Fold:
Amino acid sequence: MELSRDWGGEWLDSLQWIAIAFVVTVVVGGVVTAVILASTAVGRHFWSVNRDFFFKQDARGLAMVWGSMVLLTLFLLGSVRLDYVLSFQGNDMYTAIQAGAAALGEKNRAALDSAQSVFWFSVRIFGVLATIHVLRSIVAQFVWYRFECRWRSWLTSELIGDWMGGEAAYRARFVEAPGDNPDQRIDVDVTDSVELTQTLYGGLVTAMVSMVVFTKLLWDLSGPLSPFGVTVPHTLVWITFAFFILSTAVTWIIGRPMIRWNFRYQRETGAFRAQLVHTRDAAEEIALVRGGRSEVRSLNVLFGGVIRSFWRLALQTIGVSAWDLSARQTGVILPILVQSSRFFSGGITLGGMTQSISAFGSLQSSLVFLQTNYPSYAHYRAALIRLHGLKQTNTEARKVELPLVGVPPTGVALRLIGAGVTKPDGSPLVRDLSLEVPTGGSLLIQGPSGVGKSTLLRATAGLWPFTDGTIEVSPPYVVTQVPYVPRGTLREVLAYPRQETVDENVA
Structure:
């Protein structure tokens, strides 16, 4: 009984295949990636958020990033090769079982011994391949988690710096359409975008390579059929691709609204979470004015928006999942039906039959990857939109011009010369105000609520863009209406916002 492969030289053949496949993947993948980054919205958003991670770190950081990418790609190719080789191991094992059964029926001892020998040899091959697969998976997981930690750390630090840099976090309130919930974007969306990049990248590389490998294998295993009197060569391959085109088109139609509802769900969730935090921080004030009922009503209204968005997203997910499950169940029986006539006519062995089923399953999985992962893609798309929106808001916020605050002459704490303050709509609050407060002196500003007292103080601190005239303040410290105590030790709180070491005798 002959084996389906030269197992003695398989390790060398596999290494050569992985090397060639890696080069092809890098070249083709590089071209495809460049096209996606340049011509699609998701590519442009990804590039704007992550470009510096891949190209503008120090030498050690770049070596870690690209070294991890190379290793992860090699592990993905190794996984495809293992699946391919395992299909031949299964062919040998089931062909041996078929041959053994025939030998038992014919009472042919020599043929039975040969079949048993091939069977146990294929079992040993399976043990070796399974061990390699387990080790590959463990090492690949380690490399990915290490890579993910570095990516998340870099991206979080980058976005925090971008958000706080140039006082963008404050200036954003003066932008026409500021992004909502930057805290959620920096926390949740960073995590989601990095994790889903790994899922989609790994799945796409595996799917594209598997499509090529298993199309060739299924082409060799598939024979002609003659439905309606017309002979179709390699029938199973054509049926597979026709099935893929149909299922993908239906998935796209059903699942496209998921991007919009995923984005809305994240926005509503962020607003609800922000209101919960605001209510917690203002618990005493709410209790003093007996505002508990009003807060309950407000929170329930916000949560109602969360549930409505979630329900619409759930309905879309159910639709996609129902179609995907239907397609997968059809794919279970389809190759058996197509190949059954060849098997019963002796045109293919039981091993070849099972290998056809395995190759069809692998090809189908690669072809319907985007269909199966469309909910993940919709979530990923929404996360990138939000991160890109945060960076855009920060950029626009830094363009908001705040008034320049000068330093007054010695002995003067505050001097205003022809200062004017308006509301954002241009309505005047303060006109042509000139005054001077000596060092150690005091100034009382009084008036009814809404007249502009706090706004004038913001202007003297250089935090109100709708200001003109000359403003000079020394020293540049103010006490905020709402006290702010940073996290840290008492020594760090006393030194805030300075970051240098404080005398240890302090505190």
